Amino acid sequence: MDFIDECKIYLKAGNGGNGCCSFRREKYVPKGGPDGGDGGSGGDIILKASPHVHTLLDQRYHPHYKSERGRHGQGKNCTGKSGQDLVINVPIGTLVRDLQTDDIIADLVKEGQCVIVARGGAGGKGNARFATSTMQAPRYCEPGSPGEEKDFKLELKLLADVGLVGFPNAGKSTFISRVSSARPKIADYPFTTLVPNLGMVRWKDSDFVMADIPGIIEGAHKGVGLGLRFLKHIERTRLILYLVDMSAETQRDPREEFVILKKELGSYSERLLDLRQIVVLNKCDLAEAKERAKEAVAFIKDQGYPCFAASALTGEGLNNILDEIVRELNEGKVAQEHL
Ligand SMILES: Nc1nc2c(ncn2[C@@H]2O[C@H](COP(=O)(O)OP(=O)(O)OP(=O)(O)O)[C@@H](O)[C@H]2O)c(=O)[nH]1
Ligand SMILES: [Mg+2]
């Protein structure tokens, strides 16, 4: 399934129905009064955050939506039926922007959260409403008002607590599959992961959501590799977990790898570097990796980051990392409560 995280949509809410101009006509009632009913209102268009939708695929392929118009009023004081509202389900984490102004209209972050993005037009009044003591037989009625029509941009930013960041092939997908329910594709070549994966982690008494995103390489901020566009999916996380490949295969100095990752994140958004960050030196089941890890641990700890040598493949060292993640997430929560 394609993973679509941006799209444009055009919405047209239903027009209101027209009011009706009519007079009571009955045998033996020579001058029946006005009895034209009001038009019904047009349906609204509503965006709703649903846990059953995971991408903006539907909206990308069907970018036009219309809700039902209100029915016209009728004689005998019959009000027209209102048009039905149209509810469009979008993934949790969808940001709604006005396409013209780029203003944020809504950020749908909770299950079931709704926003009316286009209001249906009001129904017009029927002539019965215009009758007064001096004007007993009004021959006019109102047309319905038009429903709102607008273009929007939808942008999905996943909601996760922890984001995995690393070069391609560092073992991010292996890591998430080891600690969570996620089962992404894992393979021995770069750019195996092309779309983000979310995984639910249960560790001791805590639950949190982890996001695995495609790998990042030097120059990603200039579009090299898959670029940095997937970083938007970790913008809302509270903690970044860097995975650095310690195997000799990479032919890169792991310290340099870490510096490049940070630089790329910073060039996407300085704010990412304000998040809590933990570094995992991965593939330490390999003898050569263990050796290389010693120097790297010192270098990274010197810069003030918690750093762990581990193996996503064998599971070695993962318990300590999960403990640290939970500790940092809880500390973050406490800090927020005191703001
Ligand atoms: N020896 C060893 N191999 C590992 C470890 N973790 C991952 N690998 C291997 O490294 C390769 C890449 O793993 P992935 O989990 O697909 O890496 P990734 O970071 O998700 O890669 P991309 O999706 O391309 O960014 C696979 O062949 C894994 O089996 C580890 O701890 N030790
Ligand atoms: Mg992967």
Task: Describe what is shown at a glance.
The chain has 339 residues and is α/β, with parallel strands linked by helices.
Any key phrases for this structure?
alpha/beta, Spo0b-associated Gtp-binding Protein, Chain: A, 2 domains, 6-stranded mixed β-sheet, 5 helices, 14 strands, 19% helix, rod-shaped, binds guanosine-5'-triphosphate, binds magnesium ion
Description of the molecule:
The protein is of the alpha/beta class and 339 residues long. The protein has two domains: 6-156, Spo0b-associated Gtp-binding Protein, Chain: A, CATH 2.70.210.12; 162-337, Rossmann fold, CATH 3.40.50. Helices cover 19% and strands 24% of the residues. It has five helices and 14 strands. The chain has helices at residues 57-61, 172-179, 254-268, 287-302, 318-337; strands at residues 6-12, 45-50, 64-66, 86-91, 94-98, 104-108, 114-118, 149-156, 162-166, 197-203, 206-212, 239-245, 276-282, 307-309. The protein has a six-stranded mixed beta sheet with strand order 10-11-9-12-13-14, sandwiched between helices. Strands 3-1-8-5-6 form a five-stranded mixed beta sheet. 40% of the residues are buried. The mean pLDDT is 92. The chain binds guanosine-5'-triphosphate and magnesium ion. Residues 166, 168-174, 186-188, 190-193, 214-215, 282-283, 285-286, 311-313 line the site of guanosine-5'-triphosphate.
The number of domains: 2
Q: What compounds are bound to the protein?
A: guanosine-5'-triphosphate, magnesium ion
- Give me the side-by-side strand order of the main sheet: 10-11-9-12-13-14
Query: In sequence order, what are the helices and strands, one letter per element?
Result: EEHEEEEEEEHEEEHEHEH
- What do we call the CATH topology of the largest domain? Rossmann fold
Estimate the mean pLDDT confidence: 92
CATH superfamily of the largest domain: P-loop containing nucleotide triphosphate hydrolases
> What percent of the residues sit in helical stretches (DSSP H or I)?
10-25%
Q: Which ranges are low-confidence, i.e. pLDDT below 50, for 5 or more consecutive residues?
A: none
Number-wise, the strands total 14
The main sheet comes to:
6 strands, mixed
Kindly report the oligomeric state of this protein: single chain
Structural class: alpha/beta
